[in-house]
Amino acid sequence: MVRLLAKSDITVYQKLLRKTTRSALEATKEKAGYKLASKVVKLLFSEQELAISCGQSLRQKKGDVRPALDSARLEILKGIENQIN
């Protein structure tokens, strides 16, 4: 197990992270960060969390009671995406 980012407490299997990173780097340079983020989001959040959330809650509509995703894990995701771009 390795840390997802040096400053995070979240750990993932090294082989899975390597495979994810490699597939993202095979994408075009403009889309590498996006592709990596779309793969890593599955490591950070469960399918159920993603299904019932309202994302970052940036444009939440009146009366929407869905919870926002965990902001700490979203910051890790943004950090990973910025590392590759």
Q: In a nutshell, what does this entry contain?
A:
Helices cover 53% and strands 5% of the residues.
Secondary-structure content class: mainly alpha
Widest beta sheet: strand line-up: 1-2
Strand content: under 5%
Helix content: 40-55%
Sketch the major β-sheet.
2 strands, antiparallel
On the 0 to 100 scale, the average pLDDT is 78
Low-confidence runs: none
Q: Span from first to last CA?
A: 24 Å
Q: Which descriptor suits the 3D outline? A: globular
Number of domains: 1
Number of strands: 2
Rg from alpha-carbon coordinates: 14 Å
In DSSP terms (H or I, runs of 4 or more residues), the helix count works out at 4
What are the secondary-structure elements, in order, as H or E? Answer: EEHHHH
Task: Tell me what you see in this structure.
- The protein is mainly alpha-helical.
- It is about 55% helix and about 5% strand.
- It has one domain (about 1-55, about 65-85).
- A two-stranded antiparallel ribbon has the order 1-2.
- α1 packs antiparallel against α2 and α2 (about 30-45) packs antiparallel against α4.
- It is globular, with a radius of gyration of 14 Å.
